[in-house]
Amino acid sequence: MSAQHPTRRSILKTAGGLSAAMALGAGGVLGTAAPASAAGDGFGLRIVDRNEADHRMWYYRFQTDAIGWNPGVNVLLPDDYHWSGRRYPVLYLFHGGGTDQDFITFDREGVRDWTAGKPIIVVMPDGGHAGWYSNPVSSNVGPRNWEHFHIAQLLPWVEANFRTYAEYDGRAVAGFSMGGFGALKYAAKYYGHFASVSAHSGPASLRRDNGLVGHWANASSAALDLNGGTIYGAPFWDEARVSADNPVQRIESYRHKRVFLVAGTSPDPINWFDTANETQVLAGQREFRSLLGNAGIPHEWYELPGGHFIRHDMMRRDIDGIIGRLRKA
């Protein structure tokens, strides 16, 4: 698979096809960065592996009671971080789902080039193969509480260990595919945390088309991460949890934020599954945009040729817009 065109073939194979999946769920003075505390610092995290040798990309792996294995995080620093003495805004950037994506996805894709010379820290955490940036209703493999890890543990750890602005105007959240959903979800549920939210081919509606995206979240998580457990519950959903996570049901929570949306409009000539996936993304984003427009909430959106993949030009445009919206370094 090309790094420029991530897919979810592996999910489809593991889940046994879309029909089977549906059945499962009918971050002036010379100032260097102080290395992060090896023991963690009170946020429920303990560093078990790290690499701070690279000038910009620092890597950590944590032990946390929120996740039953040790999730990794990449922290990409601005070029001048080690000598500027300044504080910087932070972008939390979330990867998509599937066995081919994790916290190094955006390093493979080119995030160093997208941010070269730009005054922003980018935090790229693990989110599971199909964690859906959620605390699942059930798990048969131990804790997989990604939402708790990201919001209650990782975010304060980043702000304690790096020179950031620990405030609303100092943070943005963005993601691709499943990560785009996670970005939309976190921006709404944790309104005071993020001033900018971006979804690159990220679904915005869990309930449309008889709950296709919600069922897919259940099916993919059951197959890849939870050994039959689910994000939202099966055979019956935890309806309150779905409503709390569903972007189209949280429209007022996007007011006074920068909102950036990207979706593809064309079939993928090679991968029929990505075509179906992006078709659902596009429909959900159109529903979301309509509701934002009716509420008078400004948003920036793009419908572009192609299927379900990371569009580098849109990432660059988005990062420039994020820097323009957030507090300046």
TrEMBL record:
Pfam family, one: Esterase
Source domain of life: Bacteria
Protein name as it appears in the record: Acyl-CoA:diacylglycerol acyltransferase
Organism from which the protein derives: Streptomyces viridochromogenes
Residue ranges crossing the lipid bilayer per the database entry: none
Leader sequence segment: 1-38
The family this protein is said to belong to: Belongs to the mycobacterial A85 antigen family.
EC identifiers of the protein: 2.3.1.122, 2.3.1.20
Catalyzed chemical reaction(s): an acyl-CoA + a 1,2-diacyl-sn-glycerol = a triacyl-sn-glycerol + CoA; 2 alpha,alpha'-trehalose 6-mycolate = alpha,alpha'-trehalose 6,6'-bismycolate + alpha,alpha-trehalose
PANTHER family: DIACYLGLYCEROL ACYLTRANSFERASE_MYCOLYLTRANSFERASE AG85A, ENTEROCHELIN ESTERASE-RELATED
GO molecular function, one term: diacylglycerol O-acyltransferase activity
Keyword annotations of the record: Acyltransferase, Signal, Transferase
InterPro entries from the UniProt entry: AB_hydrolase_fold (IPR029058), Esterase-like (IPR000801), Mycobacterial_A85_antigen (IPR050583), TAT_signal (IPR006311)
